[in-house]
Backbone:
DNA sequence: CGTGTATATACGCCGCTGTGTATATTCGAG
DNA sequence: CTCGAATATACACAGCGGCGTATATACACG
């Protein structure tokens, strides 16, 4: 299981951009090709294409060939995982430490920090 | 109004870092000073302090003076707003376009569909 | 096949971010 | 008031990310 550390990074990073969130919204309501998407933004086609690529690497959208176009559609799985990550944090904050301890261990501090809170000194 | 465009950027960007998410978790379970937090990570104190600053600017944590220490605690409001943003996206994907249309208008395409571009840093 | 459209890649530019070390500031303790 | 701990800021520097323009690939259609 383990939410796969780096994937969360990619997901949130992909979400931390206005244009990309807007792309997600547009693709959530209807199916759109990349070029169709690009028409909606004041930047170059390549820029939009790269935004889509970032979303795709994060697993937030999938592309499907349709004729000579690539249809972009949102993949709510990654979205749900991101939400679950936030839910975990909120649950932690509410004091559900006991039940969430296992989840906490899934993503320890990078490098050396260990999730051993309470035992130190 | 509502979600305040750039704030979402900051929130997700703050969440898109392993160390910062870990800080959030630690501060969700117990109150910790900045120096206490810094001890848990293999990086310099200044680096951790800046991570906390990023979280603070995003509204994800608050600091409170206690003696000569600054106690960091998670502020679930921003967390809830981020989650709400994801919920909106999921709802959109499920076809609730009608009811979500108003929410959609909150964050239009950057650059051309909206005159106000000055809110971000 | 050849041609045009759709998408991807290459390369460069610039600003921001994460990190470090070093220094400044704040504030309780005595 | 002085001292030291806790925190913040300053400066530097490598790396990445977003953007553009230009070029390469893929693919439908004659």
Residues:
């Amino acid at each position: 299981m383990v939410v796969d550390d780096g994937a969360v990074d990619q997901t949130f990073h992909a979400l931390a951009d206005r244009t990309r969130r807007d792309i997600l919204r547009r693709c959530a309501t209807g199916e759109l090709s990349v070029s169709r998407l690009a028409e909606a933004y004041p930047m170059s086609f390549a820029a939009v294409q790269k935004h889509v690529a970032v979303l795709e690497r994060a697993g937030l959208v999938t592309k499907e060939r349709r004729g000579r176009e690539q249809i972009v559609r949102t993949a709510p799985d990654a979205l749900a995982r991101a939400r679950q990550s936030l839910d975990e944090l909120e649950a932690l904050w509410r004091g559900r430490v006991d039940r969430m301890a296992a989840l906490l261990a899934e993503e320890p501090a990078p490098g050396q920090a260990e999730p051993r809170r309470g035992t130190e000194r």
